[in-house]
User: Fold this.
Amino acid sequence: MNRILFTAFIWIILMAPPATAQVFPGDVNNDGIVNNVDLLFLGQVFFQTGPTRSPVDQGISFTEKVLVPWGSTFPNTTIDIGFADCDGSGFIDHTDLEAIEINYNLSHGTPTPTTVDPGQFGVDPLLYFDSTSLPGPIPEQLIALIPINLGTATLPVASYTGISFTINYDPNVFADVIISEIGAPWASVFGLFIADVDKSAGTIEVASSLGPQSPLIDNFGPMLGGLFIIEEDVVGIMGPDVPSNVYLSNILMMDGGLNPKSIVEDTVTIIITDYEITSTNDRVDSSLEVYPNPAEDIVFIKDLNRPILSWEIYDVAGHLLRQSAAINVNSCSIDTHDFSNGLYVLQVKTREGMVQKKIIIQH
Ligand SMILES: [Ca+2]
Assistant:
């Protein structure tokens, strides 16, 4: 009798199906939450191929799908690479990046996100705001152009393959913040990038990965352009020099073996002044027209109410690219045929104050 029971027990153990893992599309590192860290893992295995999931378990909706293990794991982990094939197609590609974007911040079970080591100032490299491009106090409704740099000449980063972090700002002060990649060395043609914006919380969660085809980077310098667009009428600002802090947090940089590297955080203080103090007249933005936008080879500026005295165009890194001579016209045009596709800031000086506009060049 005992022997029969024992045999039955063994049989049950042998015949019981193995515990199957579930894929929640977008949670590439299977830590319970879809966030910017998942992009770092995705970048490591981009373009890899493996077995497809069964048709009922394909797709990127945030419901559990049965994992078909790929049999290989991310470096230094026990996480099967099959988790990166979010849609179950057998090919890791941009649809899987889309799964991160669509399911961002969704969670399952009890998330155990990666803890971040804040690093040690003077020992570890910095991710920091390059405030040298800040001209000083900035009036309401204008744009503060602040590039974000990674590493310095004395403390460069080593073996870079990707980074994720959060930018935190006061949503009552900034109407919008636009982040864009500057390019080499931190971005490659095979690279991946996301910036998830939460305007009510005042956060942007960013991740950038070189992708699998690129060599590791030992370097330092500008990484991202940041346009911090100040509200037209900042609540409570009635006088000059009101400070507002923008800071970085949750920085996770990884090398090619997915080993975290400590990076030190930074804060920049943007000084905002009441618009009325810097202008002798009423607000001037309403009558200035900039078109077309997006533009290809030429941008027109027109202000029938107030003469245009000069204009300047900056890239997202804060570099002055082109400027007019002193003029006094109601309309003019700017040749942009040799500009790269992307976002720029046009700053126009009119007789009654300064106006800034975002322009997009798309050839
Ligand atoms: Ca995750």
User: Anything to note?
Assistant: Residues 27, 29, 31, 33-35, 37-38 surround calcium ion (CB under 6 Å). The radius of gyration is 25 Å.
